[in-house]
Amino acid sequence: MRRALLTLSSLIGLVAAPLAADTGKTAPTQQCKGCEALLELAASSPLRKDDRARDAARHPVETLSFFRVGPQMKVGEYAPGGEWYSRFLGLYLGQQGHLVGLFFDPTSGAFKPDRQDGIRKAAAAYPADVAKFTGMDASRFAAYTLDAVPEGEKGTFDVIIVPRMMHNLLNWNIADSEMKAMRALLKPGGLIGIEQHRAKADAPYSYTDGSKGYLREADVIRFMEVNGFDLAGKSEVSANPKDTANWPGGVWTLPPTLALKEQDKAKYLAIGESDRMTLLFRKRD
Predict the structure, then answer these.
(1) Total-model pTM
(2) For the chain, which terminal residue's Cβ has fewer other Cβ atoms within 10 angstroms, N or C?
């Protein structure tokens, strides 16, 4: 493991100069030259032996490259949950960058008291969780609930990623407040990368209100524009034309959840994970 970390550190040095002009008070606006090689190195770490099975469906290298996540950046992961992306980002950012877990505001009105307590405990445990996986010191990582972010953190983040969570925020009616809090954390020109299960463009609102997991791409773009962001790019890296996006039980019918268990399991495995939009937004002045 030490040899792999040293190799990653030496490669970071090769891209440090191109990144130097992008560090400071303003977030970078250009793609990071050479970062894909570093992301590939993180992806191939032996420490990810149990996580790597999801790479074919989640495309972490291509997605994080599209989100312009450089190895020296300060990056927030919103709603880390199972910490799959956290473990990857910990390896990638843990030496010269800074990874911060951003957890729900427990007081937003969406959570009962026991769930509020669980959110705070998860945030408190996050740095040690990532440190244990990566073998790095816990001081390399941080976490906050969005109601308890230190004032000095505002305006310091280069990128925040929001993987497959927008449907919950809209369904729970906390999307505006959570996005406002994240926007405040970003530097001028900072970026938010959103990966989200994609409904058909003509799907009815009754299916795209968040309760089925799917959202219309145009609705997500409009929401972000209203909340002070401009669309910076789209990627089809996680598109899946086999997904009809009209399952009565929602996106959880498909892998990895397979909510119907053994019923038509082979069919759903053949379809694969959901069709997903991958969108990048820039904070508007």
Answers:
(1) 0.91
(2) C
Task: Specify the length of the chain in residues.
Answer: 285
Cα gap 104→144, rounded to integer Å: 9
Of the candidates 41, 72, 73, 34, the one whose C-alpha atom is nearest the C-alpha of residue 160 is 73
Which residue, among 201, 214, 200, 205, has the nearest Cα to 167 in the 3D structure?
214
Q: Where are the domains of the chain?
A: 2-17+32-283
Per-residue pLDDT of 179-238, as tens digits, reads 999 999 999 999 999 999 999 999 999 999 999 999 999 999 999 999 999 999 999 999
Give me the mean pLDDT over the 144-170 stretch.
98
The rounded distance, in Å, linking the Cα atoms of 187 and 185 is 7
Residue 23 has pLDDT above 60, yes or no: no
